[in-house]
Amino acid sequence: MSDQSLRDIHWMLEILQTIDVGLVVINIEYEIQNWNGFMENHSGHRAQKVQNRNLFDVFPELPHTWFCQKVDTVRELNIRAFTTWEQRPYLFRFRTYHPITSTAEYMYQNSMLYPLENTSGEVEYIAIVIFDVTDVATNKLALQQANSELARISRTDALTQLYNRGYWEECLYRELLRCRRHQHTASLILLDVDHFKPVNDTHGHTAGDAVLRHLSRTIRQNVRETDIPGRYGGEEFGIILPETDSPKAFAFAERLRGLIEEEAIQIGDNSVSITVSFGVAELEQNMQTIEDWITRADEALYQSKQSGRNQVTAT
Ligand SMILES: Nc1nc2c(ncn2[C@@H]2O[C@H](COP(=O)(O)OP(=O)(O)OP(=O)(O)O)[C@@H](O)[C@H]2O)c(=O)[nH]1
C-alpha cells in the first residue's frame, strides 16, 4: 500500500472516530467489532474494552427480539433499516449531556443499520449508526404538549374546569348522532342554582365563584365516567347521560339535588347553603337538533323553578 493510501485511510479513520454520530460495527453473532469516539464518550467504554463482547451484554436495555429481527432483515435482504425516535426513543440508553437545560433524561436517537459485505459479497458485519436527535425530539414533544394544553384550555371553562358551552354542545351533538345511528337512548339534565343572585349580593362575587366551583366539584364527583358535565351558562349546568332513560336520569338528578341541599359550603368564615333546580329530558325520535333536546330539558327546568325550586322535573 502506498504512503498516500495509508495517509488517506488514516484521515478517514480520524473522521469516523471524531464524527458526532455513533458508529458501531457488529458481526453476525452480535459481537462488537469496533466503535467510535461518540460511543466511547456516551457509553464510558473504550473500544478495546468492548471488542468481541456481545452487544446485548453491553446494552441489556436493547430489546432482543426486535433488534434481532431488524438485523436479520438487513442481513438476509442486504438492505438498510431505519428507526426513528418516534418509533423507539433510543437504541442505546445514554444520559443526555445537559440534564439542566434539556428536559430529556436520555438521548433521543434515530438509528440506521447498514449491511457490510465481505469481498465475496456476503453480509458479514452490520454497521449501526446513531444520530443524537434529542433537541429535535424535545422541541417536538414540547410543541405537542403545548398544542394539547391549548386544545384542553379551549374546551374548558376557566372557573369550574368543566367543559365550556361550545365544547359541551359538540358532545351533545355527537351523542344525538350516536343514539340515532345505533337506536340507543340518552338523557340530558339541565340544572340551575336557585336564588343565586342573593348569594352574590350578600357574600360578594368571589364567594359566588367559590360556590360555583364547589357545585362543579360535587357534579364531577357524582357523575359516571361516561357522563359529560359542562357549564352551560352563568349558574346553569348541563349533564349528558349516555345509555340512560328518563326514570334513571330522574333518580340520578334527585340524588344530586339531595346532596347539594345537604352540603354547607364553607367560604371564609361564612357557611353558604344552596339548592338547585333540575330539568330532565330523554332523547326522543322527533328531536331533530340539539336545540330541540335542550329546549325540552329547559322547559322541565322552568317547571321545577315555577313549582317552588329545589326539585327535579322530567319530561
Ligand atoms: N359569582 C358569579 N356569579 C355569576 C356567574 N355567572 C352568573 N352569575 C350570577 O348568577 C346570577 C343569576 O341570577 P338570576 O338569573 O336572577 O337567577 P337566580 O338568582 O339564581 O334565581 P333563580 O334561577 O330564578 O332561582 C346573577 O346574579 C349573575 O350575576 C359567575 O361566573 N360567577
TrEMBL record:
Reaction catalysed by this enzyme: 2 GTP = 3',3'-c-di-GMP + 2 diphosphate
One GO term (biological process): cell adhesion involved in single-species biofilm formation
SUPFAM superfamilies linked to this entry: Nucleotide cyclase, PYP-like sensor domain (PAS domain)
InterPro entries cross-referenced by the UniProt entry: Diguanylate_Cyclase, GGDEF_dom, Nucleotide_cyclase, PAS-like_dom_sf, PAS_fold, Rev_trsase/Diguanyl_cyclase
Cofactor requirements of the protein: Mg(2+)
Residue ranges annotated for the GGDEF domain, each copy included: 184-315
GO molecular function annotations of the record: diguanylate cyclase activity
EC number: 2.7.7.65
Name of this chain's protein: diguanylate cyclase
Signal peptide: none
Superkingdom of origin organism: Bacteria
GO cellular component: plasma membrane
Organism: Natronospirillum operosum
Gene3D superfamilies registered for this protein in UniProt: 3.30.70.270, PAS domain
